[in-house]
Design a protein that fits this description.
Layout (H helix, E strand, L loop, with lengths): L6 H22 L5 H12 L4 H8 L3 H18 L6
């Protein structure tokens, strides 16, 4: 673990980051509408096409990107200092 380039260190860091991101998402989820969260989750986390997500959710593509940016901004503020 002393060597940050070792396989064990990389695994530890990846698992730590995953845990922190899941925690942050649980904290952030209640702050957003169902539609905003769904747009964020599908585009930012699942990598789905913004046009398809917009069509499915009855939103414009611009609204999907705004939703993604709003949630990401909140997560960044919430997680400041936890992920480096």
């Amino acid at each position: 673990m002393a060597d940050p380039a070792s396989g064990m260190s990389r695994l530890w860091n990846r698992e730590h980051d995953r845990y922190v991101i899941q925690y942050l998402c649980r904290q952030a989820r209640p702050k957003f509408s169902e539609q905003t969260w769904a747009a964020f989750r599908r585009v930012a986390l699942r990598g789905e096409d913004a046009q398809q997500v917009a069509d499915d959710l009855g939103m414009t593509v611009n609204a999907v990107y705004v939703a993604r940016c709003r949630v990401l901004g909140y997560l960044r503020r919430l997680g400041r200092g936890l992920l480096d």
